[in-house]
Structure formats: C-alpha cells, structure tokens
Task: inverse folding
C-alpha cells in the first residue's frame, strides 16, 4: 500500500467497510431467523441436517476463500486493505474488483503507482467498483419476486409434473458444464477433474453411514483435484 | 386442458403464502439499504471531503463499467435463482463470490439433505449453508487482510500454484454430487446430457462470437432451460396421454 492517497484514506474506508459488513451479517441473520422459525413450525429438517449444512457451508467456503487470496493481495497493494476487504468480503469478488479498479485507473489515465493517482482518482476508482456490483441489487429487487410467484403458481396447480423441477435441473447442469469449461486451463485441468472425482467418490464411499463425514466430501474432492492438477502441471512443466 | 388445484401440505401452504413473501420483504429491504450503503464512501469523499475528478471522467467510467457489466447485470441473478432460490440469491448478491462460493455451497448442501431448491426443505438447508459460508468467508478474509502478505510469502510455491485448480476441482465434485441426486452417473446421464450439451454450446458461443462475449453464462443456462422446457412438455404430454 505505497500510494499516499490510498494510505491517507484507508482508515476512513475501514469505517464504511465495517458498516457494510455489519449489514451483510444483519441480512444473513434475518434470513437465518426466518428459515429457523419456518423449520421449528414444521420440523422439515433435523438438527443433525442443520449442523451438517453449517459444516458444509463453512468448509466449502475455505477453498474459494484461499483461492482468492492472491488476487485479494494484489488488490490490497493497489487500493489498500480496507477497500480490498470491503469489496472482496462484501458484495464483490476479487477478480471482478481487480478488473474494475484497473478500468477506473485506465479511464482516469493514471497508474496506481503514479503521483497522479490522488484522492480524487481513488474516490473515482471506488465509485467504479461499487457501480460494477450495485445494479445486481436492483435486479434482485425487481426479478426475484415474479419468479417465485410463477413457481408458486406451478406448485399450486394440479399438474402431475411441474416445470420448476425441470428448470432447476437444466440450470444446474448448464451452469456446471459452463463453469467446468470456463475454468479449464489445459491438460493439468483434466488431471484436476479426475483427482476431484476420485477424491469425492472415495470419501463418499468411506463416509457412508458415518454421521458428519459427508459434509467434507466437497473439501476432500477439491484437495485431491488441486493435488492431481498441480502434480500434473509440475510433470508437464 | 383444465388442471385441478393440488392439495398442498400445511408446510407447502405456509411456504407459499407466508415464508416466500417474508423472504422478499427482507430481501428487497436489505438490498435497497445495501445499495445506498455501498455508495456512502464515494458520497462522503466526493461531497464532504471534496475529492473530485472532472465529471467527464465519471461519465467515461460509467460508460466503461456499464459496457463490461450490462450483460451480467441483466442475466446473472436469474441464472443462479433456480439453484440458490430467492433467499439464497439475495444473500449471495450482497455477500459476493456468487459463482465461486455460494453456488457450490448450495449444490453441496442440497445433495447432503437430498432436497431440491424447489422444496421447502431445500430452501432451509440452502440458506443455512450459504449463511455459514458468508461467516466463514468473512473470518478468513479478515485474517488474510490483516495478516497481509505474510501468509502468501510463507506458503510453498507449489501450494500457491495449486490454488489455480480449486475452481475446476470444485465444479467437478459438484457435478458428481448432482449426478448423485439424480440417481447416480449411469441413471442421470441419459436424462441430463442434453442440458450439459446446451451449457457447452452456450460457453463456445460466448467465447467465439465477439458480440456474445459477456452473455456466455446466460446463454449456457438459457439454452439448458429451453431444453428443459421441451423435455417437460414431452413428459407432460406422455403422462396425460
């Protein structure tokens, strides 16, 4: 964090970052309370399943969090720790924020190390990063309710089959296929896929009938994939 | 063709008439507040501290960012909604890392509970899993930001390089999980290969047609949903015959 403007504004930005983080936690808490009261009313999900979901959610977040460290550190060097935390931990994703920070600097005609990267340009860079994510908020406010209303209508109808379950399957496999190709980086990626599959299948087999172990199958698959991918990349040079 | 109203269970009734409206009440309110809060630092620095650049720079910035983002702004939340559900989508778009973290978490917890997002059970476990991932991510990121470069400098180079395979490994494991939910690879593949082909077609259209560059993911999911619609119509016709 060498830039004097970034350094001077970092402390103030921590305050705004803190406010946003609190708001993210407030939202999570409100949804948590809602699903818990729904579940307490009808006992749809057992306590064991709830704690398994918590374990799974927390462990599945570790890999991607670590994955984004390198990009996040690059962002810290450019825009300081507070802005990086605010944008990566709340609202954004490291790669997207890095792209937006670079776009802002390029639009202003300066580099992050330049003396021209002053307080005004830094404010503009934050604006561009915020602007890149804010329209998603508006989108969710407009589109999600009508989508749910359509789904509810389908459920309430007497149809023997409903489109919503077909749509969920279609969207899931379409998105997974797209994501696999989008993350493909050469032959070592194939080794990573094979490794993840072997790790996941072996762990699933081992954890059959054992409480709690299944929550780690994604993490194990991921670790095996990373190992296979990296070994293959090293061998291929 | 007339369809009789289905008799819903009390949980389904509550889910449709109480739970879902409450989700949107919380979601819309928190997103509206977050929209304002996210612009607060800019408002403060620009108007209170007077850290300005020419308005023309802001206009150029808005143009550049919009050109990059417009395709995703319009389509992304709807693409993830069939998997995350409404509550999950609201949380994911406020906390960030949707594709790389909230999406795989949802797939995993739904498999674990053997419950689709279209069911009340699926909604509950998905929200629980996503909320847990939000807290875990914030804790890890805070440690990283505070510990700074020390962490990265102390990791062996091979370990750092292996992070490049996190996403593809996770997606591969997620694919197997989803196969598991559909009865295993052998049973699932004949039913779902068309969706996968649609995803692949969408990817290549986005990659090789310059005008569709930012629409690749939306195309992948859109085409897969279109295929799902034709399958639904065909299955429905068979059942009603």
Result:
């Amino acid at each position: 964090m060498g830039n004097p403007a970034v350094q001077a504004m970092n402390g103030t930005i921590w305050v705004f970052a803190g406010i946003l983080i609190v708001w993210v936690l407030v939202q999570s808490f409100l949804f948590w309370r809602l699903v818990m009261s729904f579940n307490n009313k009808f006992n749809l999900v057992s306590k064991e399943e709830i704690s398994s979901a918590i374990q799974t959610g927390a462990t599945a977040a570790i890999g991607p969090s670590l994955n984004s460290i390198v990009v996040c550190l690059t962002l810290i060097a450019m825009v300081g720790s507070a802005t990086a935390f605010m944008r990566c931990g709340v609202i954004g994703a490291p790669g997207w924020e890095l792209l937006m920070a670079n776009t802002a600097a390029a639009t202003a005609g300066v580099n992050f190390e330049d003396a021209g990267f002053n307080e005004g340009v830094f404010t503009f860079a934050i604006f561009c990063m915020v602007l890149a994510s804010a329209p998603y908020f508006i989108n969710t406010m407009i589109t999600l309710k009508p989508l749910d209303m359509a789904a509810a209508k389908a459920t309430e109808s007497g149809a023997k089959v409903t489109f919503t379950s077909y749509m969920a399957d279609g969207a899931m496999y379409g998105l997974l296929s797209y994501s696999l190709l989008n993350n493909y980086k050469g032959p070592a990626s194939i080794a990573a896929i094979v490794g993840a599959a072997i790790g996941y299948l072996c762990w699933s087999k081992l954890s059959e009938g054992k409480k709690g172990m299944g929550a780690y199958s994604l993490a194990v698959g991921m670790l095996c994939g990373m190992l296979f991918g990296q070994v293959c990349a090293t061998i291929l040079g | 063709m007339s369809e009789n109203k289905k008799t819903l269970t009390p949980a389904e009734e509550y889910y449709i008439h109480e739970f879902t409206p409450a989700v949107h009440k919380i979601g819309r309110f928190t997103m509206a507040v977050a929209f304002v809060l996210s612009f607060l630092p800019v408002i403060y620095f620009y108007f209170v501290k007077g850290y300005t650049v020419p308005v023309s720079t802001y206009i150029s910035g808005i143009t550049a960012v919009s050109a990059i983002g417009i395709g995703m702004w319009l389509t992304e939340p709807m693409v993830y909604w069939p998997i995350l559900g409404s509550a999950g989508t609201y949380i994911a778009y406020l906390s960030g890392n949707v594709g790389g973290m909230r999406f795989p978490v949802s797939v995993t917890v739904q498999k674990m509970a053997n419950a689709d997002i279209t069911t009340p059970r699926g909604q509950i476990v998905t929200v629980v899993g996503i909320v847990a991932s939000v807290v875990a991510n914030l804790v890890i990121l805070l440690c990283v930001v505070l510990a700074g470069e020390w962490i990265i400098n102390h990791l062996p180079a091979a370990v750092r390089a292996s992070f490049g395979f996190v996403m593809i490994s996770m997606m591969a494991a997620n694919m197997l999980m989803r196969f598991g939910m559909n009865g295993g690879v052998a049973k699932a593949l004949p039913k779902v290969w068309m969706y996968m082909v649609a995803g692949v077609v969408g990817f290549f259209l986005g990659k090789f047609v310059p005008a569709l560059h930012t629409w690749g993911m939306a195309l992948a999911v859109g085409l897969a949903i279109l295929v799902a619609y034709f399958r639904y119509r065909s299955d429905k016709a068979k059942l009603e015959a």
User: Anything to note?
Assistant: Chain A touches chain B through 153 residues (CB under 8 Å). Chain A is about 80% helix and 0% strand.
